[in-house]
Amino acid sequence: MRFRVLGAVELVDDDGVTRPVGSTKQRQVLAALLARPGEVVTLDTLTEALWGEDQPATAVGTLRTYVSRLRSDLGTTIVARGAGFALDVAATAVDAGRFDVLVDHATRAGPAEAAALLDEAIALWRGPAFGDQADLDCVRAEARRLEERRIGAREARAAALLAAGRAADAVAAAEALVTDEPLREGAWSVLVDALAAADRPAEALRAYRRAADALAEAGLEPSARLRESERAVLAGDGPSGHGLAAAGSAARGPAASGPAGGGPARAG
């Protein structure tokens, strides 16, 4: 049995067939367990996820019924431990775990291999992480982490394509990302660098101006990294290399790269 959370929460059996997950409450229990595979999720956390502060007197007993029904679908995958339950599966039995492994491997690979690994990682996504279960209190942080890492993986992929000599592909990847994330400075830097590498300096400078305008609307100024990409184009030096150097940081996760992908300065 495999599990999917990079999109709606789903079960996939050993034959590759997607199986339904019972009722809404059962899906909520499964989502809570999938947010922390292998770890104990307490009864209090689970009942809070299901009913919030308005819990019925029978909350714990009803929760155990939902777990029992899930077990009938999953076998013995859900185990009772201490004051809660755990989904006793390997991290890579969940698509989010496989995504993390692929992205981690990409940070240590050469450009061509990194691009291929990131292609595979990004292809695992079917929609927003955890789908309609993403707003559960016990799921929200993991859903947010995955979404931020997905953005970082897309930026790293664009940089890897550029480093692999695939400037046109890097332009397309970076352009798609800045369309979705207009404050992602790292992606703008890769786009400027990729356009320069594709011998399109005028378009590279226009991309820089687009980035500066988007940042200004948010009360921000271009960071040193993005300004260096512009400087390299103006000097005819080719790509600055800053986008490539930051690719590993972008892929590693949100702690390494903030919402704007490079820390733009506040306009003063």
Give an account of the 3D structure.
With 268 residues, the protein is mostly helical. The chain has helices at residues 24-34, 43-51, 59-74, 95-107, 111-123, 137-163, 167-180, 185-197, 201-217, 224-234, 242-245, 247-252, and strands at residues 2-4, 10-12, 18-19, 41-42, 78-81, 84-87, 220-221, 265-266. It is elongated and about 70 Å long. The strands form 3 sheets. The protein has a 3-stranded antiparallel β-sheet with strand order 1-2-3, with no helix packed on it. Strands 4-6-5 form a 3-stranded antiparallel β-sheet. The chain folds into 2 domains: 2-34 and 38-88, Arc Repressor Mutant, subunit A, CATH 1.10.10; 95-266, Tetratricopeptide repeat domain (Serine Threonine Protein Phosphatase 5, Tetratricopeptide repeat), CATH 1.25.40.10. The N and C termini lie far apart (54 Å). Helix content is 57%, strand content 8%. Helix 6 (137-163) runs antiparallel to helix 7 (167-180) and helix 9 packs antiparallel against helix 10 (224-234). The relative contact order is 0.11. It is built from 12 helices and 8 strands. Residues 255-263 have low confidence and may be disordered. The longest helix is centred in the middle third of the chain and has 27 residues, at 137-163.
